[in-house]
Amino acid sequence: MAVKTIWPIDHSCGHHADRDLSARPADRRAGFAEWLATQECTACWRASKEADEQDKAAWLDTKRAEEQAASDTWSQQYRMPPLEGTERAVPWGVRCRHQVLASAYTALVIEGDTSEAEWEEIEQSARTITRSGWWIDQRSSAPDDLPELLQAATDTDRPTENPYF
Ligand SMILES: [Zn+2]
User: Fold this and answer.
1) Could you tell me if residue 81 is left (phi over 0), alpha (psi between -120 and 50 degrees) or otherwise beta?
2) If you measure from the C-alpha of residue 2 to the centroid of ligand 1, how many angstroms do you get, rounded to a whole number?
3) Separation of 53 CA from ligand 1 center, angstroms?
4) What are the residue ranges spanned by the domains of the chain?
């Protein structure tokens, strides 16, 4: 008698399926059938995979919204002015400014020897930069480079970009 090719499988999800195992060598079918019984059926597997992906997308949306809310609250608390830029750049710039300033505060004041008074000057100078793109560009800068970056951005003695100069 030949080894059967159609195996009745009771899947872990409770569904029953007759699976055609003819593509597998005869001596491997029993082991494979046992393994199949520990799995969900194809329909359930597909459904839970889709649900996972939706969960993940929803989780990312929620996380992004939470970060945005935290940055908006922070901006109000520290009297940071609204930023300028495209619809896409502004919220991103707000999150970058929050992150850049918070990291700089930790590095300079909490871990460094910058005084609160010196920090207030840094903060004041940060308030004058309202271009979203500038904050987005500084998002990967070293936290303690911020004073130098701000100074470069607000340096009024900077030569004008005149090609004939
Ligand atoms: Zn199922």
Assistant:
1) beta
2) 29
3) 18
4) 6-40, 56-154
**105: pLDDT confidence band, cut at 50, 70 and 90?**
very high
Per DSSP, helices labelled H in the chain are 29-37, 42-77, 89-105, 116-127, 132-137, 146-154
Cα(130)–Cα(16) distance, integer angstroms: 63
The Å distance, Cα 18 to ligand 1 centre, comes to: 12
Task: State in Å: Cα 44 to ligand 1 middle.
Answer: 4
Helix, strand, or coil (residue 117): helix
Q: Report phi then psi at 73, rounded to 5.
A: -60, -45
Task: Tell me the CA–centroid distance for residue 47 and ligand 1, in Å.
Answer: 9
* Distance from the alpha carbon of residue 9 to the mean position of ligand 1, in angstroms: 11
Residue given tokens 């003819």 in the structure block: 22
In the chain, what percentage of residues exceed pLDDT 70?
A: 93
Give the position of tokens 């080894």: 3
Residues making up the chain, counted from first to last: 165
Each residue's pLDDT tens digit, 6-43: 999 999 999 999 999 999 999 999 999 999 999 999 99
Is pTM beyond 0.70? Reply is no
Residue 4 CA to ligand 1 center (angstroms) comes to 23
